[in-house]
Amino acid sequence: MSDGITLADIEQAAERIGDRVRRTPCLRSRFIREPLRAGKTMLKLECLQVTGAFKARGANNAILQLSDEERSRGVITASGGNHGIAVAYAAHASGCPAVIYLPESSPMDKAERAQGWGAEVVTEGQVWDDAERAALVRAERDGLTYIHPFADRAVIAGQGTIAREMLKQSPDIDVIVAGIGGGGLIAGVATAAKAMKPGIKVIGVEPVGAPTLAQSVKAGELVTLDKIETGANTLAPKRSAQINLDIIADKVDEIVLVTDEEMRDAARWLWFEMSQGVELAGAAALAAIRTGKVSAPEDQVIAAIVNGNGTAGIG
User: Fold this and answer.
1) What are the tens digits of pLDDT across the range 159-216?
2) Using one digit for the tens of pLDDT, what is the confidence trace for 106-154?
């Protein structure tokens, strides 16, 4: 089951958000001192996206489909950081008020960047799940439209525009690797990629300390983690949602786990080899390739989605 999300939805999303997002480069890992693997590897640099993360795609697709009345009342979300910034940006571009709830684990600069786009920012709870509960109460009280960071059809379709863009840039891609938080990115990417190129493999990457969807897929049902033990806070909800689990179970070939140190090593590689500064979570896909947890024959092209700009990952 894919809850009716189709390539047509993703094509429409791409047209809808065309004036709001950047067509980010998908570069071969050439001219470097420390090669990634013997085969061909590409990097989709969503860290160069507006607001520094792919989340601008889904947030804009969702807000652009609201009615004038809904936009006038305002939108609200809960986020580990990047989705909140994206909603603030999309709301600013649409001329509507925005309220962003962040957990205490979210880096200080995430709040500042959301505020920079004119949003009201509220800090609530230790992890994203705590912030979401508070945001939903506020949404109901104030009549605001809640823009879910991953369990929203419009958000998923918006994120799927990444895979559509990648395969138009480089039709020879054989494997796409993407980090998993709640599962919105990989659900959209897998939907688009499998529709455009049925033989392609899509592999997800989660932190060892937050294997939310790896455990859910294995159990065949949604699993709620007892605790989160990773510094990659944007990849760390305790629980996903049924729409994401259904798509991932159907379309994602494998989920692998990486440690915080492996992500940090990959972030350092991106800084020294590609001059790209990313947060810890932004290097998850690359970490899976560098450690050999994701592999393919030498003649196949693996593409990693690099997301979440910043320098926290290299510290």
Assistant:
1) 999 999 999 999 999 999 999 999 999 999 999 999 999 999 999 999 999 999 999 9
2) 888 999 999 999 999 999 999 899 999 999 999 999 999 999 999 999 9
Q: Where along the chain do its domains lie? A: 7-54+152-314, 56-146
Rounded-to-10 torsion of CA 139, 140, 146, 150 = 110
Please say whether the structural domain 7-54+152-314 has been given the CATH code 3.40.50.150: no
Question: Collapsing DSSP states into helix, strand and coil, what is residue 227?
Answer: coil
Q: What is the DSSP letter of 75?
A: E
Count of Cβ atoms closer than 10 Å to residue 13 Cβ: 29
Distance CA 53, CA 57 (A): 9
Helix (H, G, I), strand (E, B) or coil at 138: helix
Long-range Cβ pairs for the range 15-19 (8 Å, 24+): 16/60, 16/61, 16/64, 16/65, 17/57, 17/60, 17/61, 17/64, 17/158, 17/161
Classify residue 44 by its DSSP letter.
Answer: E
| First-last CA distance in the chain | 41
- Distance separating alpha carbons of residues 255 and 253, to the nearest angstrom: 7
CATH 3.50.30.10 fits domain 56-146: no
d(CA 123, CA 110): 11
Question: Per DSSP, what are the bridge partners of residue 203?
Answer: 177, 254
What b-and-e string marks burial along 214-237, b requiring 16 or more CB atoms within 10 Å of the CB?
A: bbbbeeeeebebeebebbbbbbbb
- Give the residue from 227, 200, 234, 212 showing the smallest Cα distance to 307: 234
275: number of Cβ within 10 Å? 7
Residues 6+ apart with CB under 8 A from 14: 161, 164, 165
Task: Please indicate whether the domains covering 7-54+152-314 and 56-146 agree at the CATH topology level.
Answer: yes
